[in-house]
Amino acid sequence: MMKVARAPLLLMLAAAALLAGCERPRPDTVQNGWHGTGMVQVSNPRINEAKADANQAPEPLAAAAQEGPKAGAIYQNVKVLGDVSVGEFTRTMLSLTAWVAPEQGCAYCHNTQNLAEDSKYTKVVARRMLQMTRAINADWKTHVAATGVTCYTCHRGQNIPANVWFAPPPRPDRGGVSGDNALQNKPAHIVGLSSLPYDPFSPYLLGDEDIRAAGLMATTGKLQSTQHTEKTYGLMIHMSNSLGVNCTFCHNTRNFATWDGSSPQRVTAWYGIRMVRALNNEYLVPLTSTFPPERLGSTGDVAKVYCNTCHNGINKPLYGAPMAKDYPALAAPADPAATPVASADAPATQQP
Predict the structure, then answer these.
(1) I need a surface site. Which of 53, 86, 163, 205 has the fewest CB within 10 A?
(2) Are the C-beta atoms of residues 46 and 24 closer than 8 Å to each other?
């Protein structure tokens, strides 16, 4: 009888030992707000380790002399970096090559027989991206602060950043009971494999629809439709995944809509949404006709940026590595005549 009674116990102990060997690391938790509000960030050490390996900033090239003749006075057709020294200009070009086209080298953007000409579309695009980078560092400190960005922040050694978005093709109205699926009910990684609309970007990161899930009051104020709420949740899932955080990183979950009790990160995110919207409308969309058809999306639109383009799964791109300070050519104030200045007080959503 004793042997029969001990057998199930031994099996349970063996199963527990087996499961213990396969168990994921215990999650880490960090309090992110006032005690008692439940504003806790949960993270997994194993996942954090993998992210760390993929988000290391490269070592900067040796500093160049800032004195001496300016690049615009020595080289032909320098329209953006003509205000920096020849040494800093060369250093910046070498860095750009490593950040964006390490395999193709200078020939990715330039005709190596005549570096000054604009025969390649990639050079025209790169020039505009330099203007965009300068504008971010000069005009959007409300989001990037003193850390700033470089081309590497998004490109990570690739011609095209790994994380960009295109407008999805429209779904035909099939009629009958099923009707139009309203670009949802199709599990997509972009919205956490949920049935939420899988294009929450066009309304908010290209257009300027209100990002809100519910009215602040039941009978007055601006009420939102279910469809509007679903798109908002889709964008929030994207932001959560892009930064590797849960909702309480920005919101106090007793009331998502109110700012009272929210963390400072919510203000930074508010500016970030407007920055991304401005970049898409003022820099990327106007380049649509510059790109060849094979570089456009299925609807003929250009690749656009969203939160994950820079963040790559962590709350501060490259863990906050302040690369911009090492590259004064990219941190210099943008030329107001050549680069749009984004307003921090109002959405920058004017279509080109």
Answers:
(1) 53
(2) yes
Q: How far is CA 49 from CA 54, 55, 57, 120, in A?
A: 9, 10, 15, 40
Q: For 65-152, list the strands marked E by DSSP.
A: none
The pTM is what? 0.81
Burial of 220 (0-12, 13-18, 19+ CB in 10 A): exposed
Per-residue DSSP letters for 160-182?
Answer: S-SS-B-PPPPPP---TTT---T
More confident residue, 34 or 239: 239
pLDDT tens sequence across 231-248: 888 899 899 999 999 888
pLDDT band of 352, cuts 50, 70, 90: very low
When pLDDT is cut at 50, 70 and 90, the band that residue 212 belongs to is: confident
- CB count within 10 Å of CB 122 equals 18
Q: Please check the confidence at residue 24 and state whether its pLDDT lies above 70.
A: no
Q: Label residue 250 left, alpha or beta by phi (over 0 means left) and psi (-120 to 50 means alpha).
A: alpha
- For CA atoms 55, 61, 62, 67, the dihedral sign is negative
User: What would the pLDDT profile of 284-295 be if each residue is shown by its tens digit?
Assistant: 999 999 999 999
Tell me phi and psi for residue 86, to 5 degrees: -60, -40
* Contact criterion met (CB below 8 Å) for 115 and 93: no
The tokens for 39 are 């504003």
Q: What is the pLDDT of residue 214?
A: 65
Task: For 202, list phi and psi in degrees, rounded to 5.
Answer: -55, -40
So where are the chain's domains?
63-168+182-331
pLDDT at res. 189: 76
Helix%, strand%, coil% for the chain, nearest 5: 45, 5, 50
Class of the domain covering 63-168+182-331: mainly alpha
What is the rounded distance in angstroms from the CA atom of residue 265 to the CA atom of residue 276?
A: 16
